[in-house]
Amino acid sequence: MSGIPGPVVTGTIAYLLLGVVAVGGIYGSRATGMLSKDNADIGNVVVSLACFSMWLFWLCAWLHQWHPLIAPIYEG
């Protein structure tokens, strides 16, 4: 039985760290007064959805290339 492929784990951790850094930036902006509470709440939602969407797009692209259904035919 094979586990989760290494690149999937690495990519997931990378996107998770990206999301944590981005949400940390929102909290930092809220703490310094650059963002109001309402704008910080909206920023948290937008950043979370954006990170999840980027991760899902990357995962789909990676999985489609992992075991292609159609092999390329080279004519030469």
From TrEMBL:
One of its GO terms (cellular component) is proton-transporting V-type ATPase, V0 domain. It is found in: Membrane. Signal peptide: none annotated. The keyword Zinc does not apply. Keywords: Hydrogen ion transport, Ion transport, Membrane, Transmembrane, Transmembrane helix, Transport. It is a multi-pass membrane protein. The keyword Transmembrane applies. GO terms for molecular function: proton-transporting ATPase activity, rotational mechanism. The chain crosses the membrane at residues 12-30, 42-64. It comes from the Eukaryota. Its main location: membrane. Belongs to the V-ATPase e1/e2 subunit family. This is Uncharacterized protein.
